[in-house]
Amino acid sequence: MTKTAGRPRSFDRDAALEKALVAFWRDGYEATSIAALTGAMGIRPPSLYAAFGDKRTLFSEAIRRYQETYGAATTRALREEPTGRAAIERVLTRAAADYTDPAHPPGCLIITAATNCADPDVVEELRGHREASKRAIGERVADDVRAGRLPAGTDVTALATYYAAVIQGMSRQAQDGASREDLERVAALAMRAYDA
């Protein structure tokens, strides 16, 4: 028995995914309904389910896309800079620019999408991404300790947690209306802790 091909999609899947990403970013996972998603994506619910599965599956795909696009600057900074200090400073200054960019919702999707979320899988997925970022920051701090740029007794975990907290706070401040310049000042102040 041979299968017949289904009807071809009448929409651009990548464009629809981008619109879903922005909806989740703007309103968070819990508050973004299927109706809001299909309205933003310009498709009907059967098309959403056929192309993406359910809301939860669509959300995970939107998170992956975010990590590969908007969130990629952090990964690049932590990988490319020659020192841990330079990498963290670049992460913070890039966050100041990205979190306040008027081309998309303010802040960071990974930090904000699970606010008031009752789905433990969503909460855990986003926590996992944030913890991975904190570990990556810690690895760069440890690089500077090994290279003698920071004292041997530096509490690597505490410093990584501090910068993760600064980044999360910058995201919230951007959502509250802080400007790029405001967040750049926060970044500059935060770097004093590295030098202390």
From TrEMBL:
Pfam family, one: TetR_N
DNA-binding region: 33-52
Source organism per UniProt: Actinomadura namibiensis
UniProt-recorded Gene Ontology molecular function terms: DNA binding
Keywords: DNA-binding, Transcription, Transcription regulation
Residue span, HTH tetR-type domain: 10-70
Protein name: AcrR family transcriptional regulator
